[in-house]
Amino acid sequence: MSLMRCDSLTVSVLMLAAAGGCAPQHRELRSGVMDTLNRQVDAWNKGDIDGFMDGYWRSDDLTFSTGGRVTRGWTATRDRYRTRYGSREKMGVLDFSDLEIRPIGRDAALVLGRWRLERQDGTPSGNFSLVMVKHSGRWLVVHDHTSSDEPPDPPSSN
Predict the structure, then answer these.
(1) Which of 64, 108, 116, 153 would you call most buried, defined as having the most Cβ atoms within 10 angstroms of its Cβ?
(2) How many structural domains is the chain composed of?
(3) Per residue, what are the HEC states of the chain?
(4) What is the pLDDT of residues 37-85, one digit of tens each?
């Protein structure tokens, strides 16, 4: 066996061993992230914006990006939600779907997904990406980038 082949084999074995050893840690990470997201959905659907905000890092360094703008800080993000969704009718019923949770470190994860609000005046929806970090045993959103689905282009008049 050549030295190169031995190195490749060793690397492959080490990668397989590491992947197997990380599986329980990945399950714990996923479970913690899902717990936070489920609590957020439950709070939202009860009309509790402050409860929803418990899933965000309570820091001036929190960032929330949407519509080409960045909101900085937990309080400013909460105030934005309160202004935009100030009634149960505006809040509607929230649902997250198509969730992908990707570890990006021992205590950090990238979460991709879709959101949808069921309301009397329509069903806005879109994509989101979250960076979540484990702080004091809790998984919290430290960055949220949310986009809305664009209305379809009008038919062309050819």
Answers:
(1) 64
(2) 1
(3) CCHHHHHHHHHHHHHHHHHHHHHHHHHHHHHHHHHHHHHHHHHHHCCCHHHHHCCECCCCCCEEEECCEEEECHHHHHHHHHHHCCCHHHHCEEEEEEEEEEEEECCEEEEEEEEEEEECCECCEEEEEEEEEEECCEEEEEEEEEEECCCCCCCCCC
(4) 999 999 999 999 999 999 999 999 999 999 999 999 999 999 999 999 9
| pLDDT at residue 153, rounded to an integer | 57
Two tokens at 15?
């990668």
90 in a domain, yes or no?
yes
In a domain, residue 2? The reply is no
pTM over 0.70: yes
**Which of the four pLDDT bands, split at 50, 70 and 90, describes residue 16?**
very low
Is position 39 within any domain? no
Residue type, 124: P
Q: What is the mean pLDDT of residues 122-130?
A: 96
Residues with Cβ within 8 Å of residue 45, at least 6 apart in sequence: 93, 94
